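tool=predict chain=A
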Amino acid sequence: MVSIFLTPLFPSPIIDLFDADFYRAINPELAGKSRQEAREHFDKFGLREGLRFSPIFDLQFYRNFYPDLKNLSNQQLYQHFRTFGIREGRLPSAFFNPDYYIYNNPDVIGEQQESLRNQRVRAIEHYFTYGLLEGRKSSEFFDANYYRLNNPDLRAAGFNNKQLLQHYQIFGLGEGRRASLIFDPFYYLDTNRDLKAKGFDNRQAFEHYVTLGLAEGRRPSLFFDPEAIASLIWLTPAPNQTQQTTGETQQFEREPLAKRWGILPGGTLTYSFVTTASAPLYQGSESGVGEVSEAIKNNVRQIMQKYNEILPFNLVEVPDRPPSEGQIRILFSDGPNYAYTYEPGDGIGGDIHLSRAYESNPALSFASGPGSYGYESLIHEIGHALGLKHPNNYEGFSLNDEQQASADEGPFLAFPKDNNTNTVMSYNFAGVGASTPMPYDIRSLHVIYGTNDFNITNTTYKFDSSTFLQVKQTIWDAGGIDTFDFSELPGTNSYFFDMNEGGRNTTTAAINGTTFIAFGDPSGKTYTSDLYVTAIAYGTIIENLIGTPGNDGILGNNEANRIIGAQGADVITGARGADVITGGIGKDIFVYAPGDGGMTQAMADTITDFIDGEDVIALVAGLRFQDLQIQAVGADSLIRIAATGEILATLIGVEPSALTSADFTVF
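tool=predict ok
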């Protein structure tokens, strides 16, 4: 007798994603039920009624995101995902993307050779069983480590990774908490006035972006600039996957994947310097392979430390003793032109080749210190080794490797932005050379690999002439209450300080103080860039600032800042947030627009040292003195917009009778 085994028409459903703890927490009327009772309620009523039951699967999201499923019942929707949807790569919610999980957690699949459909099943079952508690990255929109680091109350409460995701979905979304670098609800509503006009709250803003705004090209945060990010990331095309669903054939486009090292958070990526002894064993086709100088090695070590501060894994130097050597190797060779690097990969992947021919030229030597072209070029080449590409096509550049340039593909960065103030991957060297990776570089690396917890304690960055003037650098800080202290800078200069993500901090003479003609720009236009700058990395929050003895222009962010102008005639814009502002000695101007305050005194600014007849309040965005109401609160004055009731600021120790239109100006 011959037995015939037939492949079932419909694959077996994946594991049940019901979570009793989540079900009881998000449906408070069920809080008193036991786990078994919660399960019974879900089976009898909850699924049919469309109640939330899993931190991974969301019925409403699944129906809205896939219009072809809109007519299915709740039971049919859930069954569709478990049987077909996960294999097709459909998203069960904003908080789990199977392909994203596979890409960011390569150990889940390991060396096994299996179809993408089966990998997706393995991915969701791993995440539900292990990955959620381990805090593994499963979506662009939630990062458990970021959520923990940026919410001290949750960190103090000792929430585990599963509890963090549950908290965000039940409470954090509505409260406007930020769970990743990608989405900022306040930014999204402020820059999409149509949504604000419709009265969207924070939760609705998030759901809009995930289901509609992303496809519409709306920008969700200062951090997420698709053009700038994509211009720096090497991508590996992923073919479209044609999948068989319930009787229909559909095509789902997979996103291209960044070329990167498969290093997990907390892991190690090694580098080494080819030695005189190991040079003859080098596997590449280059001739003249040799050991770089000790000065170059020390520069590379300094730069690797800067990259170490922004990456979620460790860069560690190891001896170069083939077959045991670093994953990234640094060497001299007689390869083409000035320098070039292979993209991440096995064998010679990630190796950095430098030319000896320029070592006698201090401006171009790789042994020259921070601020030089040679030093920035090392930062540039290490950026390539980590997965960054050129932001434009530089084919034909005199110092460039032609093969590397010809491999650069779009999208490209807009020419006015293509300079080394934004990214060390640019060939447009404007002003002094960078001494660290710059804002666009750090942002793209965080998109590729994720963030870390560097400097999560309260940190004060104290600058003087040697660490600020003629220095081009970017500060990455993962958390804590942080302060920029500029009090030791010379008062002979005037300054501009921007506390926002991506903010530029420099002298007024240096901001846009140099020009460049973008390589490859057919228009030949001249663009401006900063001569030198201390930039704030995207995703970094600086809460406090102390100004200089000179005249400062200070722009706050949306946090509750503490700003001290110190000496000089300062112009201070606290912006959003309940700021405490001290102008200090000198005639200071405090700038306000509608929306900068709040409906209670606690939500508004406090100006601690306003001097009537000396300091001035500047009104912008159409606000005029006659629009204001000045109210006494004890010995202080409250400045309110009469029509809306919004309180802009409290002036400490100033009585309303002392304030006249002469204390205000319109910008």
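The domain at 460-666 is CATH 2.150.10.10 (Alkaline Protease, subunit P, domain 1). Residues 612 and 663 are 7 Å apart (CA to CA).
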